[in-house]
Amino acid sequence: MKREPIYRKALVAIIAALCFILPTAGAQTMDKGLHLLDMDQFHNAAAFFKDLTKQAPTNADAWYYLGLSYCEINNADSASIAFNAGVTADPKNPANFSGQAMVLHMKKNDVQAKATLVTASKMSQKKYPNGLVSVLKG
Fold first, then answer.
1. Secondary structure (H, E, C), 67-78
2. 13-64 pLDDT, tens digit each
3. Which of 24, 106, 116, 134 has its CA 20 to 30 A from that of 6?
C-alpha cells in the first residue's frame, strides 16, 4: 500500500480550512462597515468601504455602501462614481441603480431620478418577485 506524503495531507487540510474561514472573514468585514454606517460614522465608513472595494473590486455591495457613505456626507460626485462602479461590477444588482437615483435627486434631477428608481424597482421585482417575503424565504 502506497502512503501519501504528509505534506500533501497538510496542504489539503489548509485548503479545506481556508474554504471555511475566508467567506466568514468577508462577511465580518462587511459587518464592520455596516456598523460604522449604523453609528453615523460616515467618513470612517467611506474610508472603510473604499479600502474594501480596492480589495474586492467586483463586490457590488461594497460599492453600494461606499456610495451610500458618500451620499451621507453630501459628496454626490464620489457617490456617483461608486454607484457606477457597482453597476459595472454587477449589472443585475438593483441597489446601485437606486444609489444612482439618490445621486440624481441630490443634483436636483428628480425626473431622471424617478426613472432610474423605477428601473431599480423593476429589477428588484424580477430578482425578488414577492418582495421581502421571498428574500426571507431564501
1. HHHHHHCCCHHH
2. 555 444 444 444 455 578 899 999 999 999 999 999 999 999 999 999 999 9
3. 24
